[in-house]
C-alpha cells in the first residue's frame, strides 16, 4: 500500500491520499480504520492475492453512500478497477438501507469518469469538493 499509494499518479485525483505519502502512513491508516460507518476494503488480484488498491464507502445522505476507489499504477488499464467497483456497488445494494450509490470524480480524471459511466453512473451535478490531502478544504 505504501508504495502504490505513494505514487503521485495514484494520489493526484484522490481527496484523502496525502502526497508525498509519509513513511508508516499505510500501517497507521489500517490500524486506525475503526469508523464503523465507513467500509474500507483491499483490492486483491485474483490470480495471486497481490494487493493492488482499495475501495470502500461511507454514508452520504439518508439512504445513500459515497464510494471511493484507487488502483496502483502497475494495475491500470487491466479491468481491475471496473471489477472491484462493480462488486462494491453490488455489495452496497445488498443492504436494503442503501437506495443510492454516489461517486465523485475530479473533472480531469478521464479514466475514472469512463469507469463510472460504464458502470451506469450519470452526471447529476457539479460541486466543489474538499480534498484535504491536496490542501483544498
Order of helices and strands: HHHEEEHEH
Helix content: 25-40%
Unreliable parts? none
On the 0-100 scale, what is the average pLDDT?
A: 91
**3D shape:** globular
What structural class should be given to the helix and strand makeup? alpha+beta
Spatial order of the strands forming the largest sheet: 1-2-3-4
Euclidean distance between termini CA atoms: 25 Å
- Rg from C-alpha positions? 15 Å
Question: Main β-sheet, in a few words?
Answer: 4 strands, mixed
- The number of strands is 4
Number of helix segments? Answer: 5
What does this structure look like?
This protein is an alpha+beta fold and 137 residues long. It is built from 5 helices and 4 strands. It has a 4-stranded mixed sheet, covered by helices on one side. A hairpin with a 6-residue loop joins strand 1 and strand 2. The longest helix is centred in the middle third of the chain and has 14 residues, at 80-93. The model has no long low-confidence stretch (mean pLDDT 91).
What's this entry about, in short?
With 137 residues, the chain is of the alpha+beta class. Helix content is 28%, strand content 20%. It has helices at 2-5, 8-11, 25-32, 80-93, 110-118, and strands at 39-44, 51-59, 64-71, 100-103.
Which properties best describe this structure?
137 residues; single chain; 20% strand; alpha+beta; four-stranded mixed beta sheet; 5 helices
How are the secondary structure elements laid out?
Elements: H1 2-5, H2 8-11, H3 25-32, E1 39-44, E2 51-59, E3 64-71, H4 80-93, E4 100-103, H5 110-118
